[in-house]
Amino acid sequence: MSLPPQGWPNRSASRSIHCALHRWHVQVLGGDGPELLLLHGAGGATHSWRALATQLQGYRLILPDLPGQGFSRAGRRDRFGLGAMAADLAALCAHQGWQPAALIGHSAGAAIALELAGLLPAPPRAVVGINAALAPFDGLAGWLFPLMARAMATSPFAAPAVAWMASQPGQVDRLLASTGSNIDARGRALYRALAGRTAHVDGTLAMMAAWRLQPLIARMPEITLPVLLVAGANDGAVPPRVSAAAARRLPGAEFVQLPGLGHLAHEEDAPAVAAVLQPWLEARLAGSAQDRGGLGV
């Protein structure tokens, strides 16, 4: 399936695009303003932007599901790593003639955004990371979790088993609560629907198994374009200190911490997140239609 079912947020804006081996599900919202490319995190989909999209007025919003996740179908299993996904997104942008003025990524989507910024022929003027996953897992999880993910991703039984477990009462709600966010009932139902889809679980596991951040982290001091890193103080998945540390390594970065919000801050309180993003974007995208060059990536 490359289109979501009836009732999915913004389904009327959904389109199916075959490019770079994948069958992408993409939603395009808004008018003729500067283009913003919004990238969800691991295990997410376009639905995660449903609230923030209503706050970002005056822009043309491009929302893809990452390969194998949501309602995008992956063409090959060797395209789930950070570099491969960024390259395939760059090919998708070229195929569609998109020239995003800014990239906005949540969690792992922020890492993809930073990687993608260096691949686009017309570089973006800014990157925003919301609870950006810009550090390897700590301690034991640093080697144990990727090892488990790789094992599960290569097993034909892992994705159906995880999807079945996720369908059990309360499982997804407990996982969401562990992120430090309290999202509404509609949001929880959408995550339950995704977690029950074997293809989505398989794509998420494959992405986690192939995840390698070290090359991007090493290049951070060379990424000079403006970057805004916004972190929820209550994030139980990616602690705010990760964004704070990344901001110190990125020459053009700013760090903002939002009190009372968790990992899904943009779903939990979209107006609060937009209140930080909007003026920052407006200041950096002024004249973006006329001048798109001159920023190092």
Give a description of the structure.
This protein has 297 residues and is of the alpha/beta class. The chain has a domain at 11-136 and 213-285: Alpha/Beta hydrolase fold, catalytic domain (Rossmann fold). 40% of the residues lie in helices and 16% in strands. A hairpin with a 2-residue loop joins strand 1 (14-19) and strand 2. The chain is globular and about 50 Å long. The model is unreliable at 289-297 (pLDDT under 50).
- What coarse outline follows from CA principal-axis ratios? globular
- Find the CATH topology of the domain at 11-136 and 213-285: Rossmann fold
Distance between the termini: 35 Å
Strands of the widest sheet, in order across it, are: 1-2-4-3-5-6-7-8
Mean pLDDT: 90
Q: What is the H-and-E element order?
A: EEEHEHEHEHHHHHHEHEHH
CATH class categorisation of the domain at 11-136 and 213-285: Alpha Beta
Number of strands: 8
The CATH homologous superfamily of the domain at 11-136 and 213-285 is named: Alpha/Beta hydrolase fold, catalytic domain
Provide the gyration radius in Å.
18 Å
Strand content: 15-25%
